[in-house]
Automatic annotation (TrEMBL):
Residues 37-56 bind DNA. One of its GO terms (molecular function) is DNA-binding transcription factor activity. Pfam families: TetR_C_7, TetR_N. SUPFAM superfamilies: Homeodomain-like. This is TetR/AcrR family transcriptional regulator. It comes from the Bacteria. Keywords: DNA-binding, Transcription, Transcription regulation. Residues 14-74 form the HTH tetR-type domain.
Length: 234
């Protein structure tokens, strides 16, 4: 009987904690840190303030849990199946013949990155992190930086694996990936986080994705002059 009571209390504890986290997530993302009170979180979570503080000792501790959890989720969403592209058709012989394929695949990857990093929840998270950057830089801006680093590392690995099939000669995949990400996100991050900003997202995505793909092919494709000024592959 005592063991069942302990298990029941544990289940209730985890349930109330989950409710608090999901509720506070919505409130923080909508209203920010300063305009969110523990009273509001307790009320909308359906728990007493005593219960709320039993789970989280302060609003800052709760905010840290929420933002850390969301950043982790967004990182997984951004990377999941990012490079699951349709198999290339046979018959593209020669580096020049594979350039259209390289552009097509790189454009597809860039569009996926933008779709996953600039959807409404991601934009709300970015705005929240930017606003709270001065107060909690390691958690917010540092967390966003870590997500970007994971994306750059994944793109660099993609370049290592696919360079031959795409007829790209990339000596420094990390450098190329960093350039690719910078061109993909160019201007869009700022436009997205500015309150009241309006941007034609699909059109802007296609433009940036196309530019990023074209620059990589021009720099690292057959007969191109790489970033160091020498012939790629020479």
């Amino acid at each position: 009987m005592q063991e069942m009571d302990i298990q029941t209390r544990s289940t209730r504890y985890q349930s109330s904690r989950g409710t608090i986290l999901s509720t506070s997530r919505e409130i923080f993302m909508r209203h920010g840190y300063l305009d969110t009170s523990m009273d509001t979180i307790a009320q909308q979570s359906g728990v007493s303030k005593t219960t709320l503080y039993a789970h989280f000792e302060s609003k800052e501790a709760l905010f840290n849990q929420v933002v850390g959890k969301v950043l982790g989720e967004r990182s997984r969403v951004a990377l999941d199946g990012l490079f699951d592209l349709p198999a290339a058709e046979d018959g593209a012989d020669g580096s020049a013949a594979r350039e259209p394929l390289a552009r097509e695949r790189l454009t597809a990857v860039a569009c996926r990155i933008l779709e996953r990093t600039l959807d409404p929840e991601a934009v709300a998270l970015i705005r929240l992190c930017v606003i709270e950057g001065a107060r909690m830089p390691r958690l917010t801006l540092g967390g966003l930086g870590e997500v970007r680093q994971r994306l750059v590392a994944a793109v660099a690995e993609f370049f290592r694996d696919q360079a031959d099939s795409l007829a790209l000669s990339i000596d420094e995949p990390q450098e190329a990936a960093d350039l690719f990400m910078a061109l993909t996100m160019r201007d869009l991050m700022l436009e997205a986080v500015l309150p009241g900003s309006e941007i034609e997202i699909p059109r802007a995505w296609r433009h940036n994705a196309g530019v990023a793909a074209d620059v990589i092919v021009r720099l690292y494709g057959s007969g191109s002059t790489g970033p160091t000024g020498r012939m790629a592959g020479a």
